[in-house]
Each structure stands twice: as C-alpha cells, then as structure tokens.
Amino acid sequence: MLQLILLIILSLTLSCCGEIDSPPPQSAVPEATNIAIADLRKLVYGRNVYIEESLIVGGYITSNDKASNFYKTFIIEDATSAIEVMAGLYDLHNIYPEGYYVTLKLKDCYIATHFGVLQVGRKAESYSNYPTEYFASRVLLNRHVTRYDVRNPISPKPYAIKDFQQADCGRLVSIGALHNVNDKYKEIFNLNEDGEWSGYNLFADDNGNMIAVYTSNYASYANDKLPDAKVAITGILQYGKLGSQEMFMIKMRDKNDCKSVN
Fold first, then answer.
1. How far apart are CA 118 and CA 18, in angstroms?
2. How do the residues of the chain divide into helix, strand and coil, expressed in percent and rounded to 5?
C-alpha cells in the first residue's frame, strides 16, 4: 500500500514538472493578429508606451537562451519586424522553443525600445535602468503570451553592415566575411583584450565597416577563443554605444552562430 501511495505521489510530481517546463498544447490555428510589429514599433519613438487597446501581434521565436547569452527574455519576429518579450523566467528554450509561433496580447503591457530593440513587459520602476520590467510570473506571462503547435524556423536575413537600419533591430540577421579588429581599436573602445568572446569584440568587413559583438560573461562560450579566420556571424541585431561611438551590435544565440568562411 505504501509503495502504491509513493508511486502516485511521484506520478503527480512528474506531471506538475511537465506543466512547469512546457505550456499546455495549443490549437494549430493561432489567434488572429490586428497589428504588425513594425506598426507597433512606430507607436514608440523613444517613449515608454502603455497599451490600453486590445492589440495582438504574432511571430516566430528567433532567440534561444540555452547558452545563457540571452537572459530571461525571448524574441519573436513577423514579416515586418521583431519584439523582445520580457518573460522573467529561466530556461525559456524549454517553454518557448525556437521556431514556434507565438501571439502576444498587449493590452495593459508597456512597450519601449532598449538597444534599439522593441520590448514588451510590465511598467519599470522609477529606479530601474531598463525601460520595461520582466513579467516574472508564469501566470502573468500566460495572460499575454500564447505558444501554438505551429513551427516554422525563420532563416537569418543576410545583410551587409552598411545596409543596416535601426528599424532592423531585434531581427535575426547574418553578416558574412568578417574579421576581428580588436587589436586595431583596443585603445579607443572598451574591448576584450583576452582574445575571448566575453564582453565586447569588434569585427569589420572588407570595406572597413564595423560591428560590435556582445557576449555575456555567463554565456557557455564566453571564455572560448575568438576565431583567427574570417567568419560569418548570425544573431539578434542591436544598436548602442561602444565607448562614445554609436554603432550596430549583434548578439549571438550560441557559439554555432559564428562560422568560418573561405
């Protein structure tokens, strides 16, 4: 009898864990959206905006926090732009896997841009360094976010550095034929001097156009050595300051987003 009771308790525990790690199955037919992410972005213009209307956007998940270079957030992208969800939870790759379709109900949320990337979350505290705050609760997140059993991974859009626009921030992009130029600019910018990914590293194309690559100190590959050869780099596009200079930046999802090229 005791063994039977223990088996029942174990079964219920495993069942509950499964509910925590993944959302319940959703219909294959997503809820209709009523605004494109690019149009939502136009509402912001550098402000923190409270959404009072029943606006719904949708898109496919393009980020991945498994390598810990993204922290408690995930990004979705539609045909027009991208938005970062300030989820506030760990291991989001288990709950919102890359490539799956998501809709966001934006009523009673705040939207703003950070490093050029459109974000959605709660109202930030007055002392916060960030324009929006994490949802930080699975219950609250489920009120606004729905993941469907529809998967269609988005391929990174190839770009030349000179063609980037700030409206592209948040999108999954790819840039080819880059080489590391830290040694040339280490006296000007606060760059990694250890030859590792951690922190900021500067790359340039054959025409001298530069882009910064940011890697969290907590990323699983933070202490891996930088490549010596030319590379193609994929990641989420950002825009911000490196030293006193504003420039485009890219944030890789994992070390596989950097590939050697001939």
1. 31
2. 20, 35, 45
Domain of 165 in residue numbering reads as: 157-260
| Separation of alpha carbons 1 and 6, rounded Å | 9
Last residue of one domain, picked from the residues 135, 151, 167: 151
E runs forming strands in the chain? 49-50, 56-61, 74-77, 82-85, 100-105, 110-114, 117-123, 132-133, 145-151, 157-159, 172-180, 199-204, 210-215, 231-242, 245-251, 258-260
Q: Same structural domain for residues 79 and 95? A: yes
Which position has the token pair 């810990």? Answer: 68
**Which tens digits make up the pLDDT trace of 178-222?**
999 999 998 889 899 999 999 999 999 999 999 999 999 999 999
Instruction: Name which of 252, 205, 199, 195 is nearest 228 in CA terms.
Output: 195
Which residue reads 């926090």 in tokens? 65
Q: Are residues 137 and 49 in the same domain?
A: yes
pTM, two decimals, is 0.90
